[in-house]
Amino acid sequence: MSKVGDYNLTLGKSQYVPIVIGGMGVDISTADMALEACRLGGIGHISDAMVPFVCDKYFGTSFVASKGKANAAAPKFDKTNVKFNLDELAEAEKLYISKTMERKHGSGAVFVNVMEKLNMADSKGTLRARLNAALDGGIDGITLSAGLHQQSLKMMEENPRFRDAKIGIIVSSARALAIFIRSASRVGRLPDYIVLEGPLAGGHLGFSIDELAERNLTTILGDVLTFLKEKELQIPVIAAGGVFGGADAVKLLELGASAVQVATRFAITKEAGFPEATKQAYIRSNKEDVIVSGVSPTGYPIRLLKFGPCMGYNNLPQCNAFGYVLNDSGRCSYMDAYLAEGGEEGKPINDKICLCHHFSKYTCFTCGANVYRIKETLGKPDENGIYKLPTTEEVFNDYKNNAGIETL
Ligand SMILES: Cc1cc2nc3c(=O)[nH]c(=O)nc-3n(C[C@H](O)[C@H](O)[C@H](O)COP(=O)(O)O)c2cc1C
Questions:
Q1: Which of 142, 121, 134, 117 is nearest to 193 (CA)?
Q2: Span 178-189, mean pLDDT?
Q3: In the prediction, which pLDDT does 405 show?
Q4: For position 209, what pLDDT does the model report?
Q5: Measuring CA to CA, how many Å separate 372 from each of 262, 271, 279?
Q6: Could you give the number of structural domains in the chain?
Q7: What is the mean pLDDT of the segment spanning 150-177?
Q8: Position 128 in a domain
Q9: Is residue 322 part of a domain?
Q10: Residue 65 maps to which CATH number?
Q11: Is 243 in the pocket of ligand 1 (CB under 6 A)?
Q12: What pLDDT shows up at residue 345?
């Protein structure tokens, strides 16, 4: 029986173990995790979500305080003029990327996940700053996510590393891919890889709640491979979402995927950014705890554990120092939901959650559909119900060498 380790992912002149650890923001797929994937010959992602905050945590910078101070005059519920300082944002991105890349060794690669839908009160300016600073910081590759990214390639066109770094996009359908390919053709720079994310993935989802039950990864993989063949494009497709073990991965590789992207099983590893108690809560979760919800102010459905502390939580919107979800007019639908409840502290806000608050505190328990099965891959818990957490290396090697666990 074949194993993932029998296959290779070829991107340009480089070959990798065909296992990609997906970006998990904010700082859930830590630099330590991504660097481990790289050391083991695969590809690891860091995420640039809330990168100024992440820099402050690791490098003693004070980007968040500086932004808060610059926006201190903004009225409590009017964030029209709240902005990010683009130079500081670029500095934070470059710092995070370059500090990560300095520590890199092994034959794999470290990529960064860059979400378009983090509008950051100036969707174009902040995205341009992040993308270019990631290239300047020496990242091996950029995975464009949470959006169609029709202008992202153009935004990087003048960067000296535009053709040297790998650039890929996450899509959930052949239709979305066709839109991106059209915009890529306009700048004469096709993606080096495509991550195809199916309905079982964690994080924000590229499907409406109604579509989720009707779609599956193997069918949309077929659609995308057919589209690429018709267009005579040879771009590796990395399949993602609910790939729970080696057997699932091999199945997708045999269907024509070039690699798999996996995340949920890594969210509870020692290297993951979540606090220990959260990792244990993920492992103890049951199937009925996993829901897909409309609470994210990004407008995308998000899969999460319904018992996570973010649900129904009330906190004053923190847009002066954070404000990652503010649109270009300074609105965030969490703020709207907060005001609709009377703008008072203490009342449960059920409609939306404050992503900035909960992702900075690790209290939004987003996960893939198979999270409740993680316990099957671990030893028995101790007498207090505590599971011994695996390392990134152990989970990576389980995908690579173990042909068991088919769930797809
Ligand atoms: C905790 C968690 C956080 C995630 N955060 C992001 C993110 O910030 N950006 C993104 O594009 N995808 C995100 N994802 C999606 C993953 O990168 C990945 O594509 C997907 O979860 C793979 O499916 P799996 O979790 O079933 O293995 C996240 C997934 C998880 C589990």
A1: 142
A2: 98
A3: 66
A4: 87
A5: 15, 20, 12
A6: 1
A7: 98
A8: yes
A9: no
A10: 3.20.20.70
A11: yes
A12: 82
Residue 41 backbone zone (phi > 0: left; psi -120 to 50: alpha; other: beta): left
Give the pairing type, strands 19-21 and 259-262.
Answer: parallel
Q: Are strands 14-16 and 19-21 parallel, antiparallel or unpaired?
A: unpaired
Domain membership of residue 48 as a residue range: 4-273+389-401
Going from the Cα of 401 to the center of ligand 1, the distance in angstroms, rounded, reads 23
d(CA 257, CA 217): 11
Per-chain mean pLDDT for the chain: 97
Does ligand 1 lie within 6 Å of residue 142's CB atom?
Answer: no
- Rg, the chain, Cα only: 20
> What crossing angle do the helices spanning 86-102 and 31-39 adopt, rounded to 10°?
40
pTM of the predicted protein model: 0.98
Does residue 99 sit within a domain?
Answer: yes
Residue 81 in this model has a pLDDT that exceeds 90: yes
Question: Is 261's pLDDT higher than 80?
Answer: yes
Q: Are 282 and 274 in contact (CB under 8 A)?
A: yes
Atom 2 in ligand 1: which residue has the minimum CA distance?
24
For residue 177, give the nearest of 161, 189, 154, 193 by alpha carbon: 193
User: For residue 394, is it within any domain?
Assistant: yes
As a whole number, mean pLDDT of residues 254-259 equals 98
Q: How many CB atoms lie within 10 A of CB 218?
A: 13
Measured between alpha carbons, how far is 153 from 7 in angstroms, rounded to an integer? 30
| Residue 135 scores a pLDDT above 70 | yes
Residue 21 in contact with ligand 1 by CB distance below 6 A = no
Express the helix, strand and coil content of the chain in percent, nearest 5 each.
40, 15, 50
- pLDDT score recorded for residue 343: 86
Using a 6 Å cutoff on CB, does residue 143 contact ligand 1?
no
| Binding site membership of 172 for ligand 1 (Cβ less than 6 Å) | no
